[in-house]
């Protein structure tokens, strides 16, 4: 190694030389500076740099011109200056070098190839390093060249092979990287710094600052770590663009060179380098080290000198770098470290499995392996390869060497029914049919936990077989055989039980005990206790003996019967000469020792006799004692009797003397009479028992029931080993029977919970009438076992019949499959079967006796042997339900106490106890605590069982106070009432904290209201009937409101969240998307502005004054004009009026509009003429009752908006010229011309009212004429005439717009057919979709809250006969009268009475009773009347102004359609412009509903011909015909005649009240009543009523005028239907008659009440003010 | 007020809306109001308020600080309807429209003393996608008709909300006469006996 001193010296020299060359050269090469710098750096590092570079070139000239190489060098040089700085202070080079090599051999491989890309450098390095070894040699050209050549050759040969591998690994930007790396390794102290720089290098290329920094640092030799950090983290300004460009170009160039080089020696060079590294430790090692040294080490020292200080040329600030190129192979190699491309190839199985494992295929071993989901082979291979790459990749593979996979979960076919689009387009055949829900009997009877997979319950039903004890096909022999078998069975059972033996033993024991007892005590007197015991014992002995005797007797008879039966059978066999049954009875004799037998027998008899005697003795004694007692009694009585008789006899003698005594006696006698009759008869003395007979009896009995002593014991044995006669040998009848038998076969159905779950195979009937099934059915159950039923079916040929059913109890959970015994269940059938062959049939009398006596009737019967048990799972887990297993309930009956003992049994303690013990109730189960406690109490006996069963027996303990106390607490009551939202307390604030602070006052109102419910306030209603109705209405209302309150708590999203509608495209209504583009094109101020939709406000955060009523009064038509006064003047003093009225005569009328609402009055300016135009907007404040702005409260506002048209009249009262200046005093009078009233509720629900309304003008308007001022009347004369009158165009709305309350979102129950409801829903929905603005109603809600189909409301109903009688010859008049009658029934909108929650329809009789209803009720009534009058009438459901959605009536008469407004009684022709009906939605009559599907909805533009299907869509059509709905209306309406006197009374009261009110309204002025005028007016009113409210002839006015003389009179009659007094007062107030302030004014008020049937009253108020002129 | 026989109890709430954590939004302000039952009445202090607009600082990355004081006294006769603090946060969206960023509510703590609460916030979601888009575009996002809806349970089932950030509130609670009226809300440990001098105490004797 060269010493650093040497090197430094040489370097200095070289540098100086270089500087010069550089200066010369740098001008001509600006490109590719950076890479060349790098190269030159290498040169610089060596002492021999300058010559070296030049000599190096020849090495390269193998490919390139010297020239270009030089330029490059130059560049390198420049760059090196920079690089050197970075890499100052290179100590410990070699040591670190090794490490670096080791560490980064991989990188180096890459780096080498990078070198490769620039062969010159590589060669240079190689050379330079060598040169290092021989420093001082100035002329190295040759050497280097030679060396290179050698190298090349060597490398070529060696590296050829390596190349292939290394080539792909070629990474880009070699040189730079290599160098950096070296630095890094060298400066291990500054490792970070260098590494960081390495990363930064490409980024920080060229910034000037960096240069400076670097410069400074070089001066200091080494940068501190902090500086380094700053250096690398600092954000340097990017270099100007051209630098980058340069770089780019450089790179480009480099690439070219690479391309040129690569093919040839470049690669080899690289390999050579690689080799070098590989053979570390040899000479090459040194080379490498030197190489690094060349590059860096010497420079450090140099930097200390002035290299850069001097040469801060523009080159210094540029970083020169060779263009970096990342060769594809390099790229791939580099990527290969990070990336992995799994191969497509199949992975050999051996790799996937653990070592030394063979793949194991489960499928081959017979195990089920599901089908894998399909995955393409390539994908699977890729996945496998990928997984294998991972650590522990093998765990993903199964034993078969494949990736573990679950079976394919996708089913081949869909298991769910396809979903249909429920909207429409559904095939009618697939329409869902809705049925009323039926509560399933087995609902909720699922076994707990049965749903989950563990709850796997299984019942095993083992049907082993059945044996017939009788079958129709039995032959006689069979019958006997069956009986014999039965008896034998019985015998065997008895034998097994051996009751007789037991009892005999017991008896012996008892006897000996008794004997012992007696013996022990001997003759001693027995103690009391002992005596009792003895008697108990003897009693026991007696009972036992009796039991034994009976058993013995049974045994005996049984044996006898068996023998008899066998004998019978034998006889039968003999008789018929063939054998049918294999039965054979053997009687085995067991001989006994006669002597002992006899002795025992005698002993027994003796003992018995003794006992019997003792007993009978005892009995006798008792009876005797009894007898004596009775005898005593009898004697006593007898004696008394005798005495009495004697007395009586005496009395009878002295009867006359003493009557009273006799009476007493009599009484006594009669008293004793009864006892005489019933007196004890003389008792018979008991017979002494005969002891002899006892013995006889005993012996008799013994012989009857017992084996005779010495008689051998007979043991019957029945075997079925006999031979059956072959069929050929039998007679024909028997053969037929046997054939029949073979035709029969049997099977059993298993029904679980009444559902067939399984059936056995069909087995043919054997000749022995036994059927063996031997089948076990495993029932997986989910439902609670209710019943298990086996049905035995008999199959004859193809027909099968139910023979019998056997109900099998549900087994206890403990009964498991293994241990359940097969049980036999008897069955029988009462089917009658007869045969013409030997078969005995069933239910047929049968006799075995020759004479036919002793007939028996046998029924088919038999025994089914089966066994039901709970299954056992694979691992011996019983598959019985848990609930049952706990022993809480078991089986069907015990599952639930109610099913077990019945609901009533719950109150029976005993039954409950029984049930509890039977069901083995778990006493520790908390669920049973209540029952256990109850049982404990009941069984302890201390407490008598309560009469009730309490479910929550601990409730009391948790009560704070008793219920009564809670009830009494005022505070609690208050809280509760508030919670219930009772009106008075709904918003009650601050309920006092303490009980004592709640005063009773709080409840006063509430209680008063409650009480008032009962009291009828006649004052308010003036009519008791109406008061009652009002009360009734109130009740309905309350119930509806209650519902509403409930429904109010159901929210919709729109109630809670404000969400902007998606803006629409163009047209009105919410569209889909986009901006309203058309709006832009709209004129800014259109000539006819459209009203825009406003934002709706929910009425919750509103307060007083927030809401205003906007009334826009546009114009009016045909306002009545003043009648020229000349007429009047002519009659009165003409001159007087001239002055004042002359001016007025010029104008016809000066109307203005006054709007009054909630006692706020506003008015417009005055306009002129009969067709005024105001165009004014009036704002009226609105305040809700009690400040409650909730929707419910607003809807029930009953206030009405009165829009009155007045005529303003100015009278000049005179000219005052006191002050010399003339001032004219004028008096303004306003004369009421007419009014329109609109209920607030309408405005609220409609949110706006827009249209032209007919002004309600009085029938007579004094001083005005209603003559049309224009237009000749023509065409529809009558119709035009009817629509005469004034009209006013209005627009009314509420500001802000309130959201009307929603109707109840509840479905009401209905008695209509479900199908009908479905259809109507569909009809309405379709209508709403197609024509959203046309009301369509098919179902409505009646007063009971039930949904009713609308056509049920239409039915011809008779109008009151009086009305019809009125005009018997004029049907038109009668029609009008009927309409008037209907219109006189007060109208009360439902939304007022029911808070708008729903539209309830009352039937006509209800309507007439309530005398209040909505438009719909009026319309229905009118329509029904019309129908009954023989008209064609329909109900129109549509919208009208101002009512909004409403109902009108359509009639068809004289080929014209007339539209009737039922609330006003008016009718309009179809083409009437002023018809208030705006939209026709649908037509209804009794048969059908037609929906309007025409283009237009206005009556004028549409056709009412419902026959046209394209115009009217019928509800009931051919596809859905009218199901014949009966009407809900009554057959006939019954009318009550209104009492005239009541009407008169009412009339007086109204008059009185009105007069009072008018005086109240005029507090500052005296109100004088002109009585004369009043009486005059009163006469007019009935006439007006007669004319039906239509205007009366002029004569009336004249008459009046003449009567009143020269009074100037203004006035008018008002006509109202009567409901309450309030509306009348309001109406009078709104006319403003009282507002005349002239001093000389007088008033006249006349009231007339016209009674119509059924308390419908028409009220007329004639109001006039007059001034004496 | 007759100290011996109180008829109402008092609840004083001091505290502040400290700030919020809305990682995505900036320039937010907060509105608050109290919701309380029929038996409650505020006696002093503001029932409603609106804070300043705050931006995120460069230091504290996500925190929005308002430090908006709350100071209200309620009187009541009945603990039912205990006051709740309802906060709603608003701020501009990308287009500068003022939109709601969250609603939240919390009960005023029952126990006297210091409490700090973190209120999770949420906003109603548009009903469907398109609406979501248009509401985003037009800055008219769905809002509760009444922010107080978040303090009540009724009708909430019809809404769908998305959670969005948190608001931190600290409370200092004092009560008076609660115990005298039979309501014991204090900690189970026996109250300090020292504060007999005044009716006001954090531990309400």
From TrEMBL, chain B:
Pfam families according to UniProt: B9-C2
GO BP term (any one): cilium assembly
Keyword Cytoplasm belongs to the record: yes
Keyword Cytoplasm: yes
Family statement drawn from the similarity comment of this UniProt entry: Belongs to the B9D family.
Record PANTHER family: B9 DOMAIN-CONTAINING, B9 DOMAIN-CONTAINING PROTEIN 1
Function noted in UniProt: Component of the tectonic-like complex, a complex localized at the transition zone of primary cilia and acting as a barrier that prevents diffusion of transmembrane proteins between the cilia and plasma membranes. Required for ciliogenesis and sonic hedgehog/SHH signaling.
Subunit structure: Part of the tectonic-like complex (also named B9 complex).
Protein known as: B9 domain-containing protein 1
